[in-house]
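User: Sequence for Aminopeptidase below. Tokens please.
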Amino acid sequence: MSNDKTAAISSDQITRYQTLFNDRKDAKVVERAVSHQGILATSADFASDTDMTPVFSIELDTGKVANQKQSGRCWMFAALNTMRHHLADLFDLSDFELSQNYTNFWDKFEKANYFYQNVLNTADQPLTSRKVAFLMATPQQDGGQWDMLCAIIEKYGIVPKSVMPETYNSSKSSELNSTLNKKLRKDAVTLRDLTAKGASADEIAAARDKMLGEVYRLLCYTLGEPAQKFDFEYRDDDKNYHIDRGLTPKSFYDKYVGWNLTDYVSIINSPTSDKPYNKTYTVEMLGNVVGGREVKHLNVTMDDFKQLAIAQLKDGQSVWFGCDVGQSSDRQKGIMDTNTYKKNELLDMDLSMTKAERLDYGESLMTHAMVITGVDLVDGKPTKWKVENSWGEKVGTKGYFVMSDSWMEEYCYQVVVNKKYLTPELREAQAETPTVLAPWDPMGALA
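Assistant: Structure tokens for Aminopeptidase:
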């Protein structure tokens, strides 16, 4: 290992780098192009536009896209979209939406309680503990996982968007998140102090109850108070009038969606050495409902990953999925393709890493959830996938994106499918007790 003196950059090195740069015949040409237009625009490969033509051999009609606006609720929008697709088909309700604000309210409320539990669980650890630091970095946020939304629905049900519409704070969540996180950190101080002073379980429970009451009030102020009973009034696609009176959020879910959520399981592709295939994993301190459904992933090969998604699409049902959306994608065109940009050629350097290396070294993780609504099969093999996003209609093709199969292989990490599509071997593996991963594992990233 070099010592500090030999590792320091010398003036001779800088002179050599300058000479090497100026000896390149294309140096000034590339400098002018990149400095004026940026790396992405200069390295864009327009052949990708042709390859990603939005035509698919299997394509579901899922209506208009939703818009999460300035919030990080993609996982929630994507999950509720898969449910509304089903509801729309059953009840002839095009462009109908379920309330993302309703599930957002209960998710934030439950996340606060989950945070308090983790604070108490780690109260004997110093503030310098990595787990404590991890907790305090982001007490709660907009992001989440499929299993976390299932935990909310199983406890609270869902409602139509007309019953609990969006508010300023649901659509633009930064003010609410910063205020709520400030309160949760303040409450963490109190809970850790009570524990350090040897307070009784009843004293701690009373303090926690007061804190939760304040969280509820804050959420009511910012998101509105959730309905307990409501009437569902609508006209179907044939303009026939319907009204269903005296529903609760749980009875609405049972009647209008009716899925057994335990049938839907999370499948991941993480080719890192610490996660053998055909094994299940969960993540420490990841969740929202204390005592509710835990996050559980079955890790499979990419071939199995794709085949499970295709099987569900062939049955006419869309597929929730999680990915690293910022990698090699053009937001405005709605293209996600490994050939979107040719940075290696432009910069004359090798920037390639394997999927496992990107996960292990912090270059990639799941950042966004969307819905797969189609696939183009050529000679039985997928070449590209149709994706319903939740960024409104002004991007992509009226809000729909195209994902190349090679992009799926490199940057997709999770799909949710009905376990009936699993082979007997995979079904048996999925039922196993999961290995617990560290809180900061990339498979614990929230979409």
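The radius of gyration is 24 Å.
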